[in-house]
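pls design
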């Protein structure tokens, strides 16, 4: 069986810089590397040794990235098709046992969370949307797609690799149909609820699969009430709530997203004309809002995209939450989310504390929710825990 590891070169760490690898962290940054010996190409799989020559593991090497090595294994074993098949089978078996016909859309492979650095695979029925966030993973594209096809038997595979991470890897964005016809939108079910998903032009891979559990939670909390869904995209939270007899307002800056939200209402035999869909900047919408809502959902894009913008992004999170706290009824509920890996739980709670303080209202935390089961987190890789959500109750 063909091997993918390059045995003619190796990575040598600086003295004392192997602690993170001993702790099984999957990233080795450029500052920890003394040298790379031998001939190699960016994206090759090389063995990593400490300064005393002791083997540490194997990983994808990219001399153009700050994350110089993305570790695949901490054992001295060959990296071949059997290796990758084993990792993907581990990931897919968990999902295939977890979901049934009521939920046909979920994440199949979650990058480092499934010990497959740089690979994200989302399933929408018979369609797979794949993302290659690391150069080494992209170089293994053919074998990875072959394995995914063999295990999952999709009719269509679409690549949608477009993020800040791939630019840092020295890669160019890719949006193309790799197999099948690539029709879009496609229809999925989530907890028995229907949605149309634009897998070609939609945000992320087409749908915010990681908010599945939160959508169900908000449906229960908003039954028969008035819901304001900020950054509503294609109406996921709104449809769930409307099916529980809530009156909903969906706010998003994208007209195409709102049009699809209306379609999603109709798919579930709901009447869009009984609800409000507003194309607006959420900050401006909340500032000008005259009525108060029973439940407000805040699921903004990542305001903190890198470490340098933590302070600026934290102010944006504080401002949007302060406005929401001011606009919810006495005893009302807010679901406040952050999808930035640079905002940890502690910082996010401090931001909400400041927002509540400035709003001058009493606020309780009644729940904390994170990523669902199909978005697992490698326990040695805290950066993989990006989604943090607080359910708040607000009083005068």
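designed seq:
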């Amino acid at each position: 069986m063909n091997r993918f590891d390059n045995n003619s070169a190796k990575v040598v760490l600086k003295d004392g810089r192997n602690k993170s690898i001993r702790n099984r962290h999957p990233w080795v940054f450029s500052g920890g590397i003394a040298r790379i010996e031998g001939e190699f190409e960016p994206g090759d799989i090389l063995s990593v040794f400490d300064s005393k020559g002791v083997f540490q593991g194997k990983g994808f090497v990219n001399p153009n990235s700050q994350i110089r090595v993305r570790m695949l294994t901490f054992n001295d074993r060959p990296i071949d098709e059997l290796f990758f098949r084993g990792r993907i089978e581990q990931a897919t078996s968990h999902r295939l046992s977890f979901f049934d016909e009521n939920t046909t859309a979920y994440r199949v492979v979650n990058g480092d969370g499934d010990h497959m650095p740089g690979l994200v695979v989302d399933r929408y029925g018979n369609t797979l949307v794949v993302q290659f966030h690391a150069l080494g993973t992209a170089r293994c594209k053919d074998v990875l797609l072959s394995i995914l096809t063999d295990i999952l038997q999709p009719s269509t595979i679409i690549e949608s690799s477009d993020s800040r991470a791939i630019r840092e890897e020295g890669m160019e964005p890719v949006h193309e149909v790799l197999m099948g016809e690539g029709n879009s939108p496609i229809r999925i079910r989530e907890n028995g609820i229907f949605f149309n998903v634009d897998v070609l032009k939609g945000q992320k891979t087409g749908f915010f699969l990681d908010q599945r559990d939160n959508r169900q939670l908000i449906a229960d909390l908003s039954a028969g009430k008035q819901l304001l869904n900020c950054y509503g995209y294609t109406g996921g939270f709104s449809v769930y709530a409307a099916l529980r007899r809530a009156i909903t307002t969906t706010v998003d800056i994208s007209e195409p997203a709102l049009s699809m939200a209306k379609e999603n209402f109709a798919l579930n035999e709901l009447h869009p004309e009984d609800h409000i869909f507003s194309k607006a900047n959420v900050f401006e919408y909340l500032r000008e809002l005259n009525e108060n809502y029973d439940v407000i959902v805040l699921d903004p894009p990542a305001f903190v995209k890198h470490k340098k913008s933590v302070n600026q992004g934290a102010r944006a999170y504080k401002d949007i939450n302060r406005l929401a706290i001011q606009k919810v009824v006495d005893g009302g509920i807010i679901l406040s989310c952050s999808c930035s890996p640079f905002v940890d739980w502690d910082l996010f709670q401090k931001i909400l504390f400041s927002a509540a303080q400035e709003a001058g209202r009493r606020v309780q935390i009644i729940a904390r929710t994170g990523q669902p089961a199909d978005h697992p987190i490698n326990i040695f890789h805290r950066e993989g825990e990006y989604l943090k959500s607080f359910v708040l109750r607000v009083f005068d």
